[in-house]
Amino acid sequence: MPEFQRLSLGEAQLQSGTGKRAQLIRQYVEYVEQVEMGQAGKLTPNPGESVTAVRRRLTAAAQYLGRELVVKRTKDDTVIFWLDTGEPRRRRRRRTSEEIAAAAE
Predict the structure, then answer these.
(1) How far apart are CA 97 and CA 5, in angstroms?
(2) What is the crossing angle of helices 20-34 and 51-65, to 10°?
(3) How far apart are CA 21 and CA 46, in angstroms?
(4) Hey, how many other C-beta atoms are within 10 angstroms of the C-beta on 57?
(5) CA distance 18 to 75
(6) Distance between the two ends of the chain, CA-based, in angstroms?
(7) What SS3 state is found at 63?
(8) Could you tell me which of 55, 54, 67, 66 has the C-alpha nearest to residue 10?
(9) Rounded to an integer, what is the distance from CA 5 to the centroid of its chain?
């Protein structure tokens, strides 16, 4: 008789994927799992691979794991990422047209 085991939907989708994308996402899941709070990871795209693709795969892997990542691109086309602390980010307030006019005078 076969052995029954429950899986989360995400785990089932990841394990059942057989294509190139599924293999890539599995690799990126491993990258994200290696980074702990207070640490960062650095990925350098291979020739023929874009920084945008690396960022997209990292984000997909983090979503699968239920984690929030901060992903940054560096000047030398590498990608640095770390776990988001969950603290709200400061946002700058847009200047009003009156403030812009006053600054121009």
Answers:
(1) 62
(2) 70
(3) 16
(4) 21
(5) 34
(6) 84
(7) helix
(8) 66
(9) 30
Distance, CA of 13 to CA of 28 (rounded, Å): 15
- For residue 25, count other CB atoms closer than 10 A to its CB: 19
| Cα 89 from Cα 102, distance rounded (Å) | 28
Domain 9-86 is of which CATH architecture?
2-Layer Sandwich (3.30)
Is 33 in a helix, a strand, or coil? Answer: helix
List per-block mean pLDDT (blocks of 10 residues) for the chain, which spans 105 residues.
80 72 85 91 92 92 88 91 77 82 81
Q: Record the tokens describing residue 52, joined without a space.
A: 């945008």
Q: Rounded CA gap, 18 and 22, in Å? A: 6
Q: What ranges do the domains of the chain cover?
A: 9-86
- For residue 3, the model assigns a pLDDT of 87
